[in-house]
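We now fix the convention by which a protein and its fold are recorded. Here is one such record, which you should read through line by line:

>
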Amino acid sequence: MKISGRNKLQATVKEVIKGAVMAKVVMDYKGDELVSVITVDSVEDLDLKPGDKVTALVKSTEMMVIK
């Protein structure tokens, strides 16, 4: 599979918190926490669970910087 996104981060799922429609997926990336909100259908289709090795793709039109 080819994809246009260039920011591919190999991470491990720490936690999956399902709501009625959306789910929060918490991942560990080299000691840093990444959080994604995706549909519950996607969580179930991917069979995501803690400990799974995943690739987080980051694609954004906005980046914020804080100091």
Q: What stands out?
A: Residues 24 and 35 are 7 Å apart (CA to CA).
